[in-house]
Amino acid sequence: SISSQHAELLVTRGISALEGGYVWRHDPKLTHLSPFRLSEAQAQQLIQDIACPTFCILGDAGYVEIKQLLTQRRRDFKQLTSRELTGNHHLHMVNNQGVAQAIKEFLVKL
Predict the structure, then answer these.
(1) pLDDT value at position 14?
(2) Would you state the pLDDT for residue 35?
(3) What is the predicted pLDDT for the residue at 25?
(4) pLDDT tens per residue, range 40-79
(5) Burial grade of 40 (CB within 10 A; 0-12, 13-18, 19 or more)
(6) Is 15 exposed, middle or buried (0-12, 13-18, 19+ CB in 10 A)?
(7) What is the distance between the alpha carbons of residues 51 and 33, in angstroms, rounded to a whole number?
(8) Under DSSP, is residue 17 helix (H, G, I), strand (E, B) or coil?
(9) Beta bridge partners of 18
């Protein structure tokens, strides 16, 4: 769940005013499955080929499936740093200061 303040922000970003009302605007491609699918071996190889430091920030109340997938994929990354912060799927909205600080700390260590 998100606060009414954050819901208002999402709605404001997601609508367009038309004569006589509003409509949801979005990229229509987001409603379709991607035509580009990787096999498990391809996904692992793609991750293993990442040579630069990688940073992943998750919300402690985010999607459980993403946390589980990160646990499975962690071994495939050469240089993965991850942080869990207070927040949900909209972590960058509900904990923007924490996200900014975590990114800053990660970048300073590079």
Answers:
(1) 83
(2) 83
(3) 84
(4) 999 999 999 999 999 999 999 999 999 999 999 999 999 9
(5) exposed
(6) middle
(7) 28
(8) strand
(9) 21
Which residue has 């987001």 as its token pair? 30
User: Tokens representing 76?
Assistant: 């495939």
Structure tokens at 104: 């800053």
23 has which bridge partners? 16
Q: What is the DSSP code string of 28-91?
A: GGGGS--S----HHHHHHHHHT--S-EEEEEETTS-HHHHHHHHHHGGG-SSEEEEEES--TTH
DSSP, res 22 = E
Q: How many CB atoms lie within 10 A of CB 60?
A: 12
The Cα 93–Cα 74 span in angstroms is 26
The token duo for 108 is 């300073």
**Angle at the Cα of 30 from the Cα atoms of 16 and 84, rounded to 5 degrees:** 100
At 5-31, the pLDDT tens digits run 888 888 888 888 899 898 888 777 777
Residue 36: CB atoms within 10 Å: 5
